[in-house]
Write a structure and sequence with these properties.
The chain is built from 11 helices and 12 strands. The chain has helices at 12-23, 51-57, 85-91, 105-113, 125-145, 163-174, 186-195, 226-229, 250-253, 266-270, 272-286, and strands spanning 4-8, 27-31, 45-47, 60-62, 97-100, 117-120, 155-159, 178-183, 198-201, 214-217, 237-240, 259-262.
Length: 287
């Protein structure tokens, strides 16, 4: 049965999602994707000139993941237009449903006042787990691009042991890298040991942070500050996968001659087609 969807901004995942929905004979209205040449001329995909037009044309609107990178404006990299989160929420009303990722409590409260239902798709555990596959594979690409040796045999320190870290550690371990995971919970330390990785207490980070070829952070809070950065070897590659504000003090690490990469939004960069399919499946589960 034909349905009508709205796509609001977003990265390559939303571009692929729009094409996927149209291929399934749905009608798709877009706003904030006018510079996505990939969508031009596709039957059943229509560009809107305003957020109001998008809202009036479609009941279900799929927004960016994350909704915003700066906490102020809606993420729309394929548009010259800018719209603040607050302005957007106020204009998408009249019982619309907005499906986005990583929404703050303030936005939820604002949406209630605007008679708008917000669904934070990144609270769907199935999608989060599936996204870790693309994140892990994207991280491997980052490592290969920023090292001049093979990865096999290199020592890697992963900070945290959440969903992303678990998938990443598994893949790197199977590439025969020397994997160590640093955490604070005793249960996580036990699980790390059970998986066959080396375990470290993150509270003692400064005492061993200089011992690794690669350091990868997955914790969305500053855990690598000035004290730790001073101990990091200049030959070490440091990669931060955590969303804003990240887990590494950017100002401090830039003072040292250390190769540092803040690798955000990897699923949308390395596997947008697969990610779009996962988003499509998740939307169906919600609706």
């Amino acid at each position: 049965m034909e349905k009508v969807y709205g796509i609001l901004g977003g990265d390559n995942r939303n571009i692929k999602l729009a094409k996927l929905l149209a291929k399934e004979n749905n009608i798709v209205y877009t706003y904030g994707l006018e510079e996505a040449e990939e969508l031009l001329g596709i039957s059943k995909i229509y560009n809107c000139n305003s957020v109001e037009e998008l809202a009036s044309s479609s009941g279900i609107i799929v927004g960016p993941i994350p909704f915003s990178k700066d906490g102020v404006n809606v993420l729309m990299p394929y548009s010259n237009q800018k719209i603040t989160i607050k302005e957007c929420v106020k204009k998408i009303c009249n019982n619309n449903k907005l499906v986005v990722g990583q929404v703050s409590d303030d936005i939820y409260n604002l949406a209630k006042d605007s008679n708008l239902e917000i669904v934070d798709i990144m609270k769907c555990e199935e999608l989060v787990i599936l996204n870790t596959i693309a994140t892990a594979e994207g991280t491997i690409q980052v490592l290969m691009k920023n090292t001049d040796t093979i990865l096999q045999g290199l020592s890697v320190l992963i900070l945290g042991f959440g969903k992303v870290a678990k998938t990443l550690a598994y893949k790197l371990y199977n590439m025969q890298m020397d994997v160590t995971c640093a955490v604070r919970k005793s249960t996580d330390l036990a699980w790390i040991k059970a998986y066959g990785y080396k375990e470290k207490n993150i509270h003692e980070l400064s005492s061993y942070v200089g011992d690794y070829d690669i350091i990868i952070n997955t914790i969305p809070a500053i855990v690598v500050g000035k004290k730790e950065i001073e101990k990091i070897n200049n030959e070490t590659l440091v990669v931060d996968l955590a969303s804003y504000p990240g887990g590494i003090d950017v100002d401090e690490i830039k003072k040292k001659d250390i190769k540092y990469v803040w690798a955000l939004g990897l699923p949308g960069k390395v596997a947008p087609v697969t990610s779009a399919k996962y988003i499509r499946q998740t939307i169906e589960l919600y609706l």
